Amino acid sequence: MAQLSMKRKHAVVSLSGGMDSSTLLLRAIKEYDTVTGISFDYGQKHRVELERAQQLVDYLGDNGHKVNYKQIKLDGLVDLLDSALVQGGDDVPEGHYENDNMKETVVPNRNKMFASIVQAVALSVSNRTDENCDIALGIHAGDHAVYPDCRQEFRDADDKAFREGNWDHESVGYFTPYLLGDKFDILLDGEVLCAELGIEFDEVYKRTNTSYKPYPSGNSDYKSASSVERIEAFIKLGRKDPVQYEDESGEVDYKVAEAHVTKILTDHVAEKGRD
Fold first, then answer.
1. Is residue 201 part of a domain?
2. DSSP H stretches of helix in 84-151
3. Residues 6+ apart with CB under 8 A from 209
4. What is the pLDDT of residue 81?
5. pLDDT tens-digit series, residues 183-214
6. Number of domains in the chain
7. What range defines the domain where residue 35 resides?
8. At 248, is the secondary structure helix, strand, or coil?
């Protein structure tokens, strides 16, 4: 895969509205002169992530950090895609990401669809400005084997296809600062970046969504694998997650979510020890 461009002028961030890509957005603001954020509405059940992405962009703009932001509508695909993550799909499974049923959360070819659009935008930015542009991706070592389109083999093949199919592709590079880290490393970087950019940590991260099973209120669940992984990172960082959690009984104190995740992690370690 092509490496980072020589000059850090422009970045196009694939911004889901989750914790990883939102931290990546902060890192891009720190590293680049101009930043474009792209989000996708593909009929996901957790559409609240798009609202959070817009809220974060607005908050950053109010604090002197401008982001050129666009939401791309792909929701016409919702009736054609087979996944627990899209409207009309099966229930989103709960538990740890290494459980076999987590394959139900795969959205067929999702990252390929997203990558094609982000690549097109980055190349267009480069062509218009006659300057290099980097595609910023929040991929990290904790991305799971259950998602084939998060693997490096996919990324390399996708990049090759992009370069075979476009003129002037040399002006487009990649920015993947978390490639060797995990969710805790990303959150730790977010803590540093908030201080450097003069913004409030809690104000940033309450404007993110990681839950694949958010409630109609917009509150997050704490039992789906995506939420478990997020809360684990906050536990390691020693900070309270600023998003509001909820279960069937209504809103819950963060300590309830924290205790649930701690038990899941303890049970998972014990189960692996028996294997």
1. yes
2. 110-129
3. 17, 18, 46, 48, 49, 52, 220, 243
4. 79
5. 999 999 999 999 999 999 999 999 999 998 99
6. 1
7. 10-209
8. coil
